[in-house]
Design a protein that fits this description.
- With about 140 residues, the protein is of the alpha+beta class.
- About 25% of the residues lie in helices and about 40% in strands.
- β6 and β7 form a beta hairpin.
- This is Ribosome maturation factor RimP.
- It is found in: Cytoplasm.
Length: about 140
């Protein structure tokens, strides 16, 4: 199943695909599906999606070898690895590390093509997505 098909299935369940990842933890391969929903993701949402995907992935595994499916919310503090992640996080605080190792901390104001506008303590800073090494949202306590 490709990502477009996965997105459509999840939309039919009332949730949206945020991201997928393959992780290896304690010798186990984990295929994670992160979902989002307006108002937040519940355990019931994760269970519904897991029950929907399990039989499909039994027939068409997303990875080779032994693996485990996990369905969860990306959380309040989440990785921003796609331009779409930034677009879905407008209004949230982010920590961005650029390829030159400099860091920018501020609120995501807008996304236009590959350009992301962040309001930091140094004013508004325009960043090209291709200049970002890593980024994540964070909550200020």
């Amino acid at each position: 199943m490709n990502l477009e098909e996965l997105e459509k299935l999840l939309n039919d369940c009332g949730v949206a695909l945020y991201d997928t990842e393959i992780a290896n933890e304690n010798g186990r391969q984990i295929y994670r599906v992160y979902i989002t929903k307006s108002g937040g993701v519940s355990l019931d949402d994760c269970e519904v999606v897991s029950k929907l995907l399990s039989p499909i992935y039994d027939v068409m595994p997303p990875v080779s070898g032994d693996w485990v499916l996990e369905v969860s919310s990306p959380g309040l503090e989440r990785k921003l690895s796609k331009i779409d992640h930034f677009a879905k996080s407008i209004g949230e605080m982010a920590k961005v590390t650029l390829n030159d190792k400099s860091q920018i901390v501020g609120k995501i104001i807008s996304v236009n093509g590959d350009d992301i506008l962040i309001n930091s303590d140094k004013g508004n800073i325009n960043i090209n997505f291709n200049d970002i090494k890593k980024a994540k949202t964070f909550i200020q306590w």
